[in-house]
Amino acid sequence: MDQSVITPTDAAGSLRHVRADFPILSQKVHGKDLVFLDSAASAQKPRQVIDCMADTMRTQYANIHRGLYWMSERTTEAYEAVRDQVARFLGAAAREEIVFTRNSTEAINLVAHSYGGLLKPGQVVLVSEMEHHANLVPWQMLRDRGGIELRITPITDDGALDMEALEANLADGRVALVAITHMSNVLGTITDARAIIDMAHAAGAKVLLDGSQLAVHRRVNVQELGADFYVVTGHKLYGPTGIGVLWARRELLEAMPPFLGGGDMISTVSFERSTWANVPHKFEAGTPAIIETIGLGAALAYIESIGFDAIGAHEDALTAYALEALGNVNGLKVIGTAPQRGGVISFIMKDVHPHDIATLLDRNGIAVRAGHHCAEPLMRRLGVTATARASFGIYTTPEEIDFLAATLEQIRGFFV
Amino acid sequence: MAQDDLYRTVVLERARAPQHAGALPAATLNGQGSNPLCGDRVQLHAVLDGQGRIEAIRHETRGCAICAASADLMAGRVTGQDRAHVGRLHAELVEAVETGTAPAGLGELAAFAPLHQHRSRRRCALLPWSALIDMLNDDKDR
Ligand SMILES: Cc1ncc(COP(=O)(O)O)c(C=O)c1O
Q1: How far is the CA of A45 from the centre of ligand 1 (A)?
Q2: Pocket test for ligand 1, best of A101, A182, A187, A213 (most atoms within 8 A of CB)
Q3: Do domains A8-45+308-415 and A50-305 have the same CATH topology?
Q4: CB A321 within 8 A of CB A9
Q5: Whose alpha carbon is nearest atom 9 of ligand 1?
Q6: Residues in chain A closer than 8 A to B63 (CB atoms)
Q7: Which of B90, B94, B115 lies closest to A359 in space, CA to CA?
Q8: Is B12 in Cβ contact with A414 (below 8 Å)?
C-alpha cells in the first residue's frame, strides 16, 4: 500500500491507540464487547483521570482556601492550578474569569439568576429551537420571575440555525442576551458562533454559548469568538461528574450579584450585612468539588496531549464514515443534516421505535441513547417523539460504526 | 444476531399485527396512560358487564414494540375478568419483570420477563396495565 495515501478509514481509526487508556472499554455487556456510542451524554474516563483523582484522595487531600497547614495549601494549589488550565483551555483573558460550577446546567442557571437579575422587564432573552433543556428552562424561570420576554429563533429543516430569523429577532433592539448552543446534542449541528456574536453585538445584545458539546471536539477560544459567557461540563470532557465551568468577561462577573450564599464567597460577614469576595470566588459558595476539579485538570491535560488537530480530524472522518454507513441501512433516516456538524448522529428507522432500537443494540453490547435527549421542543419541531442517537468520542473506531450499521440492518429485519 | 429472547415472536407479532387494537364505539369506560419520557401513549376503551367484568376492551397504542405488544396481550388476557383478577395479573407481571422469573400461570405475558435486565424499559410493558387499573379504579370511585 502507498504509505502516503491516508484513506478516510485510516483517519476515522486514527485515535485507536487511545483506547488502551480507557479501562471501561474492555468491559462486556450482556456477554458482548462494549461498544460505547453515547459519549455525548457523558464520556468515559481515561486512567489518567481515574488515577489522578484516586491519588489526590490517597496522598494530597484537605479542604482548600482556609487551611493554614501544608496539606491544605498543596490541595489549594492543585485546585487553583486547574483554574489556570481552564483559562488557557478556553482562551480566557484571565483566570478570574473562570467560575467553577457543578455542570453546564448550574453555570447557565448562575447566569440566568445573576445576570438575569440585572435585566429590566421588557428586555428579551433569545434562545434557539434546538436548545438542551438546560439552556431553555432557566430562561423560562427568569421570564416568569422577572417579566423578561423569551424569544425563540427557529432552525431550518436541515437543522441549522436560521440566521435570517435570528437577524429579524434582533431587529427591535430589545434583546439583552442571546443564549445559544455551540453544538446541538441532538442534531450534531455546529452553530456559526462568530456570525451569531457579530449579529448580536451589533444589536446591543450579549451572547452566551452553551459549549457542553462543542468544547469536547473543537478548540475553543472565547476571546477570538468575542463571546460574553461560555459554559462547559466536565463529564463530557472525559473528566468526572460534578464539575463544570462558567467563563464570563470579568466586567460582567463583577457587575453581577452572587448566586449562592455561604462560605468562601464572602469578604466580611456580620449579622447586619456581608460583603462579597472578589470574582470568581463570589460565585463559588461552599466547599467546591475539589477532587473533581483536580480530575478535570487531568482530563484537560489528557485532551491537550492528544491535541484538537488530531481530535478534530478523527471526528470529521469518523462522522463522514458513519453518515455514509448509516445512510445505507434500509429504512434509516438521519435527523439533522446541517453542513457544519460534529459526531452526534440522531436517527429514526421506519417501523421501529427508537427505544426498541436502543434495547436491541444494547443486547449486542452497543450503547446508544434513545428518547427526546432533553430537547422536547426540538422533537416537536422535528415532528418526532424520540430519536435514537449515536455519538462518538476519541476512542470510537470505524469498526464500531460498521458493527452498529450491521446490527441496525438486522434489527430492521426483525420488524419488517 | 440470534432471535432475541425479549423480542420473541409473540412480542413482534402483536406489535406488528395487533388483535385488539382500535376504537370501541360502545365503550362506557375510556382511559389512557402516557410516558412523557418516550412519548408512548395508550388509550383504552372498554365495556363492563353487570358483574363488573370486562366484556370488551380495545386499545389504541402509539409507542414501542414492547408497549404495543403488552397492550394487545393485556386486552386479550383481561377480557371476561374483573378488577381483582386484573390486579393479580398486574402484580404477577410486575414480579416477572423485576425478577426475570414469571409466576406459573402468566402464560404469554411471561414474554416480558427478560425486561428484568432492562430496568428502563419495564414501564413500557407496565404502562397499559397501569392505565387499565387507573381506568377501573376511576370507575369504581364514581
Ligand atoms: C448541549 C447541552 N447543553 C447542556 C447540557 C447539560 O449538561 P449537564 O447535564 O452536565 O449540566 C448538555 C448535556 O446533556 C448538552 O448536551
Answers
A1: 17
A2: A213
A3: no
A4: yes
A5: A105
A6: 353
A7: B115
A8: yes
Q: Which fold has domain A50-305?
A: Aspartate Aminotransferase; domain 2 (3.40.640)
Among B3, B4, B10, which would you mutate to test the A interface (most chain A Cβ atoms within 10 Å of its Cβ)? B4
Assigned C-alpha cell, A289: 468539588
Name the catalytic one among A25, A260, A367, A374. A374
DSSP codes of every residue in A369-394: EEE-TT-HHHHHHHT-S-EEEEE--T
Between the alpha carbon of residue A254 and those of residues A113, A169, A204, A232, the distances in Å are 14, 29, 19, 20
Which among B1, B4, B121 has the least Cβ separation from residue A355? B121
pTM surpassing 0.80?
A: yes
- Give the cell for residue A28: 462486556
Q: Does domain A8-45+308-415 have CATH number 3.40.50.300?
A: no
Name which residue sits closest to atom 10 of ligand 1, judged by CA: A103
Among A241, A243, A285, CA closest to A113: A285
| Catalytic site includes residue A52 | no
Question: Would the CB atoms of B64 and A355 count as touching at under 8 Å?
Answer: yes
Residue type at position A217: H
In eight-state DSSP terms, residue A395 is T
Nearest CA-CA distance, residue B55 and chain A, Å: 31
Residue in chain A closest to B119 (alpha carbons) equals A359
In chain A, domain spans: 8-45+308-415, 50-305
Say which of B38, B118, B124 has its CB closest to residue A385: B38
Q: What is the ipTM of this complex?
A: 0.87
Given 3.40.630.30, 3.90.1010.10, 3.30.930.10, 1.10.10.10, which CATH number is that of B9-141? 3.90.1010.10
SS3 A179: strand
pLDDT in single tens digits along all 416 residues of chain A? 444 555 667 889 899 999 999 999 999 999 999 999 999 999 999 999 999 999 999 999 999 988 889 999 999 999 999 999 999 999 999 999 999 999 999 999 999 999 999 999 999 999 999 999 999 999 999 999 989 999 999 999 999 999 999 999 999 999 999 999 999 999 999 999 999 999 999 999 999 999 999 999 999 999 999 999 999 999 999 999 999 999 999 999 999 999 999 988 989 898 999 899 899 999 999 999 999 999 999 999 999 999 999 999 999 999 999 999 999 999 999 999 999 999 999 999 998 999 999 999 999 999 999 988 888 888 889 888 889 999 999 999 999 999 999 999 999 998 88
List all residues of chain B from 50 to 89 with a beta carbon under 8 Å from chain A. Answer: 62-66
